[in-house]
Amino acid sequence: MDTRFVEGLNPQQAEAVTHEGPALLIIAGAGSGKTRVLTHRIAHLLASGRARPHEILAITFTNKAASEMRGRVEALVGPEARSMWVSTFHAACMRILRREHDAVGLTSTFSIYDTADSVNLMRLVAKDLNLDPKQFSPKALAARVGRFKDELIGPEEAVRLTESASRFTLEHVAGQAYGPYQARLEAANAVDFDDIILKSVRLFEEHPDIAVKYREQFRHILVDEYQDTNHAQYVLVREFVGMGGAGTGTATASLTVVGDADQSIYAFRGANIRNILEFEQDFPDAHIIRLEQNYRSTQTILSAANAVIANNTERRPKNLWTDAGAGERIVGYAADTEQDEARFIAEEITRLMGEDNRAPSEVAVMYRANAQSRAIEERFIRAEIPYTVVGGTRFYERTEIKDMLAYLAAVANENDDVAVRRIVNTPRRGIGDAAVEGIEAAARAAGVSFGAALRRLDEASRMTARARAAVEGFVALLDDLRALAADNGPAALIDAVADRTGYLAALRASDDPQDASRIENVMELVAVGREYGEENPDGTLTGFLEKVALVADADQVPDADGGGGVVTLMTLHTAKGLEYPVVFLTGLEEGTFPHARSMETPGELEEERRLAYVGLTRAKERLYLSRAEVRSSWGAPQYFPASRFVEEVPGDLVDWRRSEGLDELERARAERLSRRGESWSGIYGTKGVDRATGTLDDRRVPPSPPGSAPGPDLGLGIGDRVSHDQYGLGRVVALEGSGHNAVAKVDFGDLGVKRLLLRFAPVVKL
DNA sequence: GTTTCTTTTGTTTTT
DNA sequence: CAAAAGAAAC
Which terminus has fewer CB within 10 Å in chain A: N or C? Predict the structure, then answer.
């Protein structure tokens, strides 16, 4: 046996690395070294001669994980390993679909629609079907259609399955909308995210010759994070392995999957734990290896995580252990407000950087929803803590970037209706709603796409001469860009789009302060294009668009470099697979985490708990749990009781602290918020909170909900001095309105006179 | 057709 | 409170 790759591994890990057999399931507990096992297994396959690099297909959850895995294997066995396929499901399928596009009925320039594009397309479908967008939001319909695709259900079958449902359910309407949606998608020569997998499955099912070709190539399939695969991905794996329906006479490939049912956090997107629980039934002669020793966390952290996950009933018990010492106690902090929570985190990080000599890159702050980063960011800026937010309003989802990319997509694919419609009047060029309607009518009459109809305007008689001229100008512009794209790389095209379309000029001319940063973003996209051109000398426009479409949140996580670095802020979902010496788990309140919308159904609540488990197990040495009693989600601030997940952590593991040493200003603000927050929403339960321990207490039931929140009565008069969180000190110069709508005009000196709606404004009377 | 004002709505989580 | 959508004025 080749012992090079098992040195320093425990017996289970070593067995997982060297096991020979048709199917292997590695049940890997959190922090059990699964990434190492997977990379060493690949290295072992290569070094022992069982596999050649091009015979390996390894599926990871993110592109970043893929490039790291490839790098490690190359370091272990040499550069020839480069010809392995290591990528996400989506990237692997795209590679196949591009190659075999004829067989799936696409032209080579097909577009990829992300979630936002799908919703836009669904908006058109909903309009065609006369659906009320308030009753059935395009977003919900698009998501439901996506779930059909995850289950490999086609439009006709979806209609059949949902016709019995009441006509006015999302279920039924989505079934009806699926067909028209898919028709529009295909007419646009585009695929959405779910199609990438679905069409790959269909390709293999309907073209046995192609299936056999890939099966003969890939002799070893490895899938990481198997607990988060959906049905379509499961069927695809079976096709790869040779256990699918299509093709005959091909020997099956070996299959290795790695996963942990306790870390399944994507059921909302179609992931099915069944895939991991029933692996043995699915793949005969399957062997199972459990990795139950944790090498990541201290015993304290692990005990907390084990205690929390034990509350899930739909679960096979697991015995995850460590021989690391107890380590530091967990620190809990019950803050008054989200600002107070942020202040605590910032102070604690500053202290850790000083006293414990921690680098910022050793610290991560995690939260349930992206919007929660805001208060923390504001505080970090003030405290001068270097940080990055991963995900959030993602770069590629910003309006200006989507606009620019829509130009590129329209240039690459004339039939891409979502892209063409997005830019037809951006920047303004005199093609308004009426003109768009006319073009639409022409497109329908001629049975062509919106983009193609731009050239056939004679058929749209109702259009004004001016609009017609504007459209002609637009068509000429696109043709110019197409000519340029024909013999230049994507970088040159992005440059041209920014300049020749007048997009940058419009931003520069605007007096909206936000447009300054939009210009920067556009320039950054230009830089991204240049970088792509340098890294891929023969990279194409479609290649660039594909790369951009498939970037994931987790791909942007900064590397943990030795010197300094930055604190990472991210959602718990993005944190999957990562680890940090110091982790802050924030917003542990009923309604925030678990999220209010997941608290109704037991299944969703258990998924929230798995998410908590993922969060807890990211920490190696120090773990902080924090919550805010008052959080201003939107509108009025609200009280939130402590999260049940906090209570599920054994009390002796946690050192609870409460806000102390608030300065006068902050205390006044906390009081003010409390005064207002007493309007109890009622949807988050009826338990009170023991302020000393931060735990739920049935005896302390909050005040009953008043019909309307009491207006703030600051007792302000003209001439009073006030303090504002942002503007600082000021003097009241006028008062308008009363009660709920009371407004004060306050002179903040250099900052000028501001009109403040007292219901919201963060002001304190001094 | 475009700008500006007013009203409404919204926060899960993401390949 | 902010962003987006809708309505009215230009």
Answer: N
Q: Is the CB of A391 under 7 A from strand B?
A: yes
Q: What is the mean pLDDT of residues A407-411?
A: 95
**A286 phi, psi to nearest 5 deg:** -70, 140
Rounded mean pLDDT, A10-21: 93
Provide φ and ψ at A496, rounded to 5°: -65, -40
Interface residues 582-601 of A with strand B (CB < 7 Å): 595, 597-598
pLDDT-derived band at A128 (thresholds 50, 70, 90) equals confident
Split into its structural domains, chain A has a count of 5
Active site (catalytic) residues of A: 34-35, 224-225, 263, 618
Q: Which of residues 90-149 of A touch strand B (CB under 7 A)?
A: 90, 114-115, 134, 137, 143, 146
A135 CB below 7 A from strand C atoms:
no
Q: How many CA atoms lie within 13 A of A443 on its CB side?
A: 20
pLDDT category of residue A442 using cuts at 50, 70 and 90? confident
Q: Quote helix, strand, coil % in chain A, to nearest 5.
A: 50, 15, 35
pLDDT at residue number A600: 83
> In whole numbers, what is the pLDDT of chain A averaged over residues?
85
Chain A residues 596 to 635 with C-beta below 7 Å from nucleic strand C: 634-635
Give A561-573 pLDDT, tens digit per residue: 666 789 999 999 9
Q: How far is the CA of A135 from the C1' of B11 (A)?
A: 19
**Among A246-250, A256-260, A278-282, A683-687, whose mean pLDDT is lowest?**
A683-687
Do A433 and A479 reside in the same domain of the chain?
Answer: yes
> What's the pTM value of the predicted model, to 2 decimals?
0.84
Q: Residue A188 and residue A637: Cα distance in Å, rounded?
A: 45
A211 and A74 assigned to the same domain: yes
Whether A22 and A84 share a structural domain: yes
Which nucleotide across the nucleic acid strands is nearest to A756, CA versus C1'?
A: C1
Three-state DSSP state, A651: helix
Question: Where in the sequence is the domain holding A650, given as residue range(s)?
Answer: 330-386+566-675
Among chain A residues 687-746, those with CB within 7 Å of any atom of strand B: none
Please compute, for residue A490, the number of CA atoms within 13 A of its CA located in the half-sphere on the CB side: 30
Positions of chain B reached by protein Cβ under 7 A: 1-3, 9-15
Alpha-carbon distance of A255 to A25, in angstroms, equals: 8
Asked if residue A277 and residue A258 are part of one domain, the reply reads yes
Nucleotides of C under 7 A from a protein CB: 1-2, 4, 6
Nearest to A360 by CA among A568, A556, A621: A568
- The secondary structure of A658-695 as a DSSP string is E-----HHHHHHHHHHHHHHTS--STT-S-EEETTTTE
Pair (A626, A671) in one structural domain: yes
Q: Is the CB of A757 under 7 A from strand C?
A: yes
Distance in Å from B12's C1' to A613's CA comes to 17
